[in-house]
Specification:
Layout: H1 3-28, H2 58-62, H3 77-95, H4 99-122, H5 127-146, H6 153-173, H7 179-193, H8 197-220, H9 232-255
Helix pairs in contact: 1-3, 1-4, 3-4, 4-5, 4-9, 5-7, 6-7, 6-8, 7-8, 7-9, 8-9
The structure holds zinc ion (ZN).
Zinc ion binds at residues 42, 44-45, 47, 67, 69-70, 72.
Length: 258
């Protein structure tokens, strides 16, 4: 078995569990509810979701998307969020070799679908998600460095300051961007910055590009430009692009100028 395949297989259960946790984050965090307790219940019959019915993706398929107790339809958003989150974590494990980097990038990417969904639905990026993440990722980068992982704490700090700082200026100068976006930029900046600032550059560039495409899409669909399209989903997509193709994209972009 190749090392890449082995890493991907080991990462899969972690990705699924993280994905399952993220569906709870999406459902509860915007309302300020706890993401650890109580256990999930069916919104109609209030039956507690049993462990065997709480296996990511699999349970939804086995139950054919219905509550076991009352038959209420369960949104496909849950298994989809779990599957996409798991795919991102598995992807990180396949692309990177250092366990520390896989944990760092995997955790960052696992948050991105949840951030995008919450921002699309509620127009917020919860502080309860961003603040602990900035702290945890900073700490993780320092500890990883101490264990000899190929991460750079100084560049992580610079990534945080540059991406977070740039969006802070935009948020102050314009109305469209909120402080939630600034904090998300800090999260992405600190974790991708640890791998190299070019990754942060690609994340920001791709984020702006996606934001522009969404803006044009909204205009075409006749939405009022002032009814602000959330920028979080574009930033999240930018981070994913940077994590998987950052090295290559930064390389080919720089080649244009040489
Ligand atoms: Zn039910």
């Amino acid at each position: 078995m190749s090392d890449t395949l082995l890493r991907a297989l080991v990462a899969l259960p972690f990705g699924l569990v993280l994905g399952s946790f993220m569906t709870v984050v999406v459902a509860r965090m915007p309302a300020g509810e706890s993401v650890v307790a109580p256990r999930s219940r069916c919104p109609r019959c209030k039956a507690e979701i049993r462990s065997r019915d709480n296996i990511p993706v699999v349970s939804w398929l086995l139950l054919r998307g219905k509550c076991r107790n009352c038959g209420l339809k369960i949104s496909a958003e849950y298994p989809l969020t779990e599957a996409v989150t798991a795919a991102l974590v598995v992807g990180a494990a396949a692309v990177y070799e250092s366990v520390w980097v896989i944990v760092l990038v995997g955790l960052l990417l696992s948050m991105m679908p949840a951030v995008a969904l919450i921002d699309l639905r509620h127009r917020i990026i919860p502080n309860r998600l961003t603040y602990p993440s900035v702290l945890a990722f900073s700490l993780l980068v320092v500890v990883a460095r101490l264990f000899g992982a190929p991460v750079d704490p100084l560049r992580a700090l610079m990534g945080l300051a540059i991406y977070g700082g740039a969006l802070f200026v935009v948020a102050i100068a314009s109305r469209g961007m909120g402080m939630g976006d600034v904090k998300l930029a800090a999260v992405i900046g600190v974790s991708l910055g640890a791998l190299g600032l070019r990754y942060v550059g690609v994340a920001a560039g791709a984020g702006v590009l996606f934001g522009g495409v969404m803006g044009i899409g909204a205009l075409v669909m006749g939405r009022d430009r002032k009814s602000a399209i959330p920028f979080g989903p574009s930033m999240a997509a930018g981070a994913v692009v940077a994590a998987f193709w950052g090295e290559r994209l930064a390389g080919s972009y720089l080649k244009l100028y040489h």
